Amino acid sequence: MGRGSEVLNGSEPARPVIGLTTYLDRARFGVWDTRAGLLPAQYINGITAAGGIAVLLPPQPVSAEIAARVLDGVSALVITGGRDLDPEGYGQTPHVETDRPDTTRDSWEFALLAEAMRRGMPVLGICRGAQVLNVALGGSLHQHLPDVIGNSGHRAGNGVFTPMPVRTVAGTRLAELLGQTCQVQCYHHQAIADVGAKLVVSARDDDGVIEAIELPGEEFVLAVQWHPEESPEDLRLFTAIVAEAVRFERARVSE
């Protein structure tokens, strides 16, 4: 249950449960070297510090029924960072710099997103998550940003995030949350090209690259190309998704 419901002693409302998608990749721990469902702890820390409960949703074979059953247990969905989407999903052939696709994760996240949006559930996309949202609604991607802007400043490599300023678009939800400008941490070599149906651009950087998109209206569907989990001193986006999860859970309980 969410914050709108009281715990048994009637004094402290329960925290909302937030589902976060994960990688399915090779991992080493102890004596093991195997594929695992995993997610950097920074995402989990961001949700819990903002007052939510983080639940991991690892990639697996999916159907509309499975996606619905999974989302019955959460009050908001966060689509996290990861490898590049399969370009076939937006009608392109792979660029030489595009990652080998993980079609299981692609299908998993597209199904979860479709069900979340059908329910009016709050959605926050992060990096890859912004690209998932855009492609799901018919948009396309620049497969290798240096080909477009002439530099690799958005992804320095070796796991080093690039701090850069972004400017929000007036009148958007993101501008309301972050103000006119914000310093963010970037690590992406792809970016949104054609914007998906009904989505609006809510932030760009100094190179003109789209750094955030959102769905206008009352429902919270917002995605950023940067990594807010790498700025633990700034919890505004995580606080926003937790607050929206509270509202969603209250509405669900009252039905």
Residues in helix, %:
25-40%
CATH architecture: 3-Layer(aba) Sandwich
Supply Rg.
18 Å
Whole-number mean pLDDT: 93
- In quaternary terms, these chains amount to single chain
Task: Please state how the strands of the largest beta sheet are arranged side by side.
Answer: 4-1-5-6-13-12-11-8-9
Low-confidence stretches: 1-11
- Give me the CATH fold name: Rossmann fold
Instruction: Tell me the span between the first and last alpha carbons.
Output: 14 Å
The best one-word shape is globular
Strand content: 25-35%
- The CATH H-level superfamily is Class I glutamine amidotransferase (GATase) domain
Annotation, overall tally of beta strands: 13
- CATH C-level label: Alpha Beta
What key phrases describe this protein's structure?
255 residues; alpha/beta; Rossmann fold; 7 helices; globular; disordered N terminus
Describe the protein in words:
A hairpin with a 2-residue loop joins strand 2 (23-29) and strand 3. 28% of the residues lie in helices and 25% in strands. By secondary structure, it is α/β, with parallel strands linked by helices. It has a nine-stranded mixed sheet, with helices on both faces. A two-stranded antiparallel sheet has the order 2-3. The chain has a two-stranded antiparallel sheet with strand order 7-10. The chain has one domain (17-254): Rossmann fold (3-Layer(aba) Sandwich). Mean pLDDT is 93; it is low at 1-11. Helix 2 crosses helix 3. Keywords: Glutamine amidotransferase. One of its GO terms (biological process) is polyamine catabolic process.
Quick summary:
Keywords: Glutamine amidotransferase. By secondary structure, the chain is of the alpha/beta class.
